[in-house]
């Protein structure tokens, strides 16, 4: 498949955990059909944080929900640990997917049952999969999960409405962690939080990634948030992935016009630099999109959605950026 394939040597060293191959997601309303995701292609390697970035309505959450089987796909394959998990699969495979892929939802208030105690909210997966031998072990697991996210065992008897947004998001993280999954999808987990809490939650997630060898798919609309958190970034626009690159590379050499416009939207702390910034408005009508357009590797690990005839244009753009960088 096309997508984020690196060089052959690098691919041998990395283990692909999740593979999305030519995936479309189409919604139907009566006779009307709307394609929310078009020909999505990317791999997520074990142990990395892969960020999916784009504006609201671009299809980020739709792809995430397709991976976790909450949305049906209309074309393509989604593979987890080499096994196809979209479309019709056995009951055992469905349980295996739920057991190994967990999701931290965007709205911590809506994703928790307000009528259930925190104890039950966190334990629900344990009950469903019988992941404890007795009540004492279940309580021990819940206490561990709460302590891992900076909450206390005494919080178990409380209800979600008694917590702040940041605390509820911590409960959501604890609920995902207690299942000991191999892959966690974090759908804008910090967008509903205060700025002071955001860094705490990101640091918490990074800590678990290192300690428990977790793999994340991190969804965001703000590039500044994922700059230091993600290993690689995919930029999505109107359901189509337009650029994939390592995080540092994407910020140094943004090639696709839409990526440039997203980066320009990131506010700068220096008021003089912010004032001098030129507004970059992306106009998709100016893009050459043909039946031959696809994600194409411009340099190792850096892919841009283009028609083959545009390769020279993007290579020249990259060379100009590198020349400017050297001159500075």
Question: How many distinct domains?
Answer: 1
What's the helical proportion of residues?
25-40%
Strand percentage:
15-25%
The main pleated sheet reads as: 8 strands, mixed
CATH superfamily caption = P-loop containing nucleotide triphosphate hydrolases
Count of helix runs: 12
CATH class: Alpha Beta
Structural class: alpha/beta
Order of helices and strands: HEEEHEEHEHHHEHEHEEHHHEEH
Overall geometry comes to globular
3D architecture notes:
- The chain is an alpha/beta fold.
- The chain has a single domain (8-327), classed as Rossmann fold, CATH 3.40.50.300.
- The chain has helices spanning 8-13, 60-67, 91-100, 118-129, 135-148, 165-177, 195-212, 223-226, 247-252, 257-264, 271-276, 311-327; strands at residues 16-29, 32-45, 49-53, 75-80, 83-84, 101-104, 183-187, 215-220, 232-237, 240-246, 294-299, 302-306.
- It is globular.
Which features would summarize this protein structure in a list?
328 residues; alpha/beta; Rossmann fold; eight-stranded mixed sheet; four-stranded antiparallel sheet; 37% helix; globular; disordered N terminus
């Amino acid at each position: 498949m096309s997508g984020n394939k690196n060089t052959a040597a690098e691919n041998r060293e990395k283990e692909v955990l999740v593979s999305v191959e030519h995936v479309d997601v189409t919604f139907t309303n009566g006779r009307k059909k709307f394609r929310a995701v078009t020909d999505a292609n990317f791999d997520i390697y074990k142990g990395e944080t892969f960020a999916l970035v784009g504006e609201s309505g671009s299809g980020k959450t739709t792809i995430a929900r397709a991976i976790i089987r909450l949305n049906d796909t209309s074309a393509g394959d989604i593979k987890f640990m080499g096994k196809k998990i979209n479309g019709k699969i056995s009951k055992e495979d469905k349980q295996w997917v739920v057991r190994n892929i967990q999701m931290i939802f965007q709205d911590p208030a809506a994703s928790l049952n307000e009528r259930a105690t925190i104890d039950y909210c966190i334990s629900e997966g344990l009950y469903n999969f019988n992941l404890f031998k007795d009540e004492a072990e279940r309580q021990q697991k819940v206490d561990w999960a709460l302590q891992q996210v900076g909450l206390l065992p005494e919080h178990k008897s409380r209800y979600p409405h008694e917590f702040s947004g940041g605390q509820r998001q911590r409960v959501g993280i604890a609920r995902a962690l207690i299942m000991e999954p191999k892959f966690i999808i974090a759908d804008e987990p910090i967008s509903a939080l205060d700025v002071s809490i955001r860094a705490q939650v990101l640091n918490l997630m990074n800590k678990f990634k290192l300690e428990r060898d977790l793999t994340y798919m991190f969804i965001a609309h703000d590039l500044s948030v994922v700059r230091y958190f993600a290993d690689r970034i995919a930029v999505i626009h109107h359901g189509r992935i337009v650029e994939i690159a390592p995080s540092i590379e994407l910020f140094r050499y943004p090639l696709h016009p839409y990526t440039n416009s997203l980066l320009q939207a990131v506010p700068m702390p220096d008021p003089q630099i912010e004032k001098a910034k030129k507004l970059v408005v992306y106009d998709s009508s100016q893009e050459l999109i043909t039946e031959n357009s696809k994600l194409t590797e411009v340099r190792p690990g850096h892919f841009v959605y283009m028609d083959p005839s545009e390769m020279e244009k993007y290579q020249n753009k990259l060379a100009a950026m590198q020349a400017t960088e050297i001159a500075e």
